[in-house]
Amino acid sequence: KTKVTKFDDNGDGLFERTVTDATQTDANNVITETISTVGKDGRLSSKTTRVTSADRKTVTVSRDVDGNNITDESDVIVTAADGSQTITTSEFHADGSLDSRVAKTSSADGLTVTTKTNQVGRKDGSGNDIFDRVVVDATSVNGTTGARTKTVTTTARPVSATVAGKLLSTDTLVTSADSLTRTETIDADGDGATDSVETDTT
After folding, report:
1. DSSP codes, 107-135
2. Residue-wise DSSP of the chain
3. pLDDT tens for residues 110-159?
4. d(CA 79, CA 52)
5. pTM attached to this predicted model
6. Which residues of the chain fall short of a pLDDT of 50?
């Protein structure tokens, strides 16, 4: 399936841009959609490719923003069997090497979001990302009182796949069931001691 759209951006009767949206499904039921924009000189100006896996659980979006046929940005969206979803956003240098990457995982109920940041594109000897910072945003609801507790924990680079890095900060916000009282407790430097407590009652 292919759709071609031409644009006269300045009303001079000439088409400045031609956008081609082509979608195909291969023998393995993988769907590939490619959206290409070509200028009036016939040169490619940008291209976006979206590949959806056969089980529809993985979607990969690659963007060439300047038409040089090198991916500048990409998003990989993976939905796990438990309903959780991980979105990995990457930016690349002009030579195609990794510039930075952010991996954001949301639980199926949306109450826990973990964000890992590789700020400068570093990788270990096995080619795995070295994440500089990990932020866990977790919300829980007290079954008795109905109060909601939101805790945002920031840690430094993980020691290993199973051992978290040094605690950098913790911010805990407790909201009453009627939302009239909010208490925020902050450990700003990760030393385990409370640095500030603020209560706001409406």
Report:
1. -TTSSEEEEEEETT--B-TTS-B--SEEE
2. -EEEEEE-SSSSSS--EEEEEEEEE-TT--EEEEEEEEETTS-EEEEEEEEE-TTS-EEEEEEESSSSSS--EEEEEEE-TTS-EEEEEEEE-TTS-EEEEEEEEE-TTSSEEEEEEETT--B-TTS-B--SEEEEEEEEE-TTT--EEEEEEEEES-SSSSS---EEEEEEEEE-TTS-EEEEEEESSSSSS--EEEEEE-
3. 999 999 999 999 998 888 899 999 999 999 999 999 999 999 999 999 88
4. 12
5. 0.88
6. none
Neighbours of 131 (CB within 10 A): 20
Cβ atoms 153, 160 nearer than 8 A = no
CA distance 5 to 17: 8
Q: How far apart are the first and last CA of the chain?
A: 57
Residue 145 to residue 139: CA distance in whole angstroms: 15
